[in-house]
TrEMBL record:
Lineage per the UniProt record: Bacteria, Pseudomonadati, Pseudomonadota, Alphaproteobacteria, Rhodobacterales
Keyword Metal-binding found: no
Family from the record: Belongs to the peptidase A24 family.
One GO CC term on file: plasma membrane
Topology relative to the membrane: Multi-pass membrane protein
Protein name: Prepilin leader peptidase/N-methyltransferase
Superkingdom, taxonomy of origin: Bacteria
Membrane-crossing segments per the record: 80-106, 118-139, 145-163, 198-216, 228-246
Location of this chain's protein in the cell: Cell inner membrane; Cell membrane
Amino acid sequence: MPVQSLLLLLIAPAMGSFLGLLADRLPRGEGVVRRRSFCRACGSTLRPTEIVPILSYALAGGRCRGCGAAIPPMLLYSEVLATGLAAVALAAAPGAGAWPVAAVLWTLQALALCDLRWLRLPDSLNATLLALALAASLWLPGSPAPAQAMLGAVLGAGAFWTLRVGYQRLRGREGLGLGDVKMMAGVGALVGPSDLPLTVLIAALAGVAVAVFGSVRGARLRATRPIPFGAALGAAAALIWCQSLTA
């Protein structure tokens, strides 16, 4: 295995830990650089041995060593998922090309985590996704050409903005978050206009499937119940884009 590929897999769990941190702090409006990792329950700063990705969670039994409070399992899931996405990036674009692919997939992961936990899609992450998608169009084989990426961004954001405004006027309430509209700019640039309808369709079907599964488990289906559609949209975009890279 080339050194650069091995390095990507080695840093992936740490990146997953950082993405979990982003998903926890960005929606709260907290800084992600200045303050070290700490326990939300007791406020104690975590020692270096307590923030080793995956290993620290397992050795501590998923609890803070200071107060015994449960550590959110999302952090562990994020570390494992980031590692899996790094492997996907290597499969889609072996060698140096795997790094920008991983960067896009990790950004989609961060957006999904924020949406699943807070039902929010931070502007900074949406802007990062759009920038990476446009950069990929310039030199990453399999990505849409720059003109197609720009068209996809405009069509994606424009279509969702129209849906948002139309639903508000028709039903008198918000049916689509502004964060989803902004995310569609990055998704549209990533998959291009030709694959944009399929991406939205897959995301919609996934969202319906999750809602039905929740109702089977006892959750009540209501028209006003918010759904983390951004998470489904990110998963669909990752699937379509990686498939185009390997085609």
